[in-house]
Amino acid sequence: MIPIRIGTRSSALALAQTGLIVSALKKRHPRLRFETVRIKTEGDEFKSVELFKKNHIGVFTKEIERRLLDKTIDIAVHSLKDLPTRLARGLALAAVPKRASIADVLISRDRHTLKTLPPGSKVGTGSPRRKQQLMRLRPDLRVLDLRGNLDTRVSKVLHKKTLDGVVVARAGIERLKKFGKFWKELDPKTFLPAVGQGALAIQVRAKDARTKKVVASLNHPESERLTAVEREFLNRLQGGCRVPVGILSKKTGTRIRLKAAVFSVKTDAFVEASVERPWPGAMEAARELADILLEAGARKFLREARTA
Length: 308
What we know:
A five-stranded mixed β-sheet has the order 2-1-3-10-4, sandwiched between helices. A five-stranded mixed β-sheet has the order 7-6-8-5-9, sandwiched between helices. The chain has a three-stranded antiparallel β-sheet with strand order 11-12-13. The chain has three domains: about 5-95 and about 200-220, 3-Layer(aba) Sandwich (D-Maltodextrin-Binding Protein, domain 2), CATH 3.40.190; about 105-185, 3-Layer(aba) Sandwich (D-Maltodextrin-Binding Protein, domain 2); about 235-305, 2-Layer Sandwich (Double Stranded RNA Binding Domain), CATH 3.30.160. The chain is globular, with a radius of gyration of 19 Å. By secondary structure, it is an alpha/beta fold. About 35% of the residues lie in helices and about 25% in strands.
């Protein structure tokens, strides 16, 4: 039997995430064979901070998508927050499994909260969104640019001790099953997550009906809908994954509530807004929220980020 080939980055976190998907697929389709294919992306090869400051689109996804299109793999597994809002022609987002935690966490040797970190502490992050929120909430901290995989980043706190803390996604920590006694969650209501944070994306060729059917069983409708709303918001802003934008989305009963902010990369300025609408109008709410922020000054901040 010809295996269904699943493409993924080769980092420990990417492999752990893909392992979860492979296990779920095997349970649902025990007669099928699945093969994991490790792929090196631009973001893996060029780990310098400068690459990410320039707001390159799809540094962790383009090469995997190319392999899908040339049919050397059949399925791609991505962290949804890395996937551009506009998919490459010929590809489709076939499933979004149940979303993990959307929160960020602070990892420190003494398990500090953001409030209890000593003044002047050195905190690392490669995310403009995290950097701007850290500086807004704790302007006394020294926030330093940081690249590398999750283990590399955390080692600078726990082993090399060149940093006092790092901010990373809780979902990644939990999927790796590491560093559990060293982190404290940052409240998503005040430290807004990235678009799609905590969610995985399963991508296939748009015309591959067989593979679409295979992975469709992994889709979680509410996770798919909420992340689609967040991606619609980002698309309306015309913001890339390196633009400092945070959003919190929540479905409560028959309504959806969205809270988002866009941050300046040059000053401590930001704009923030919320909307609440009936669940069937969730996509319209996303566009409305983006328009409110654009009118409130987000256009200027987005231009700054693209030219920084």
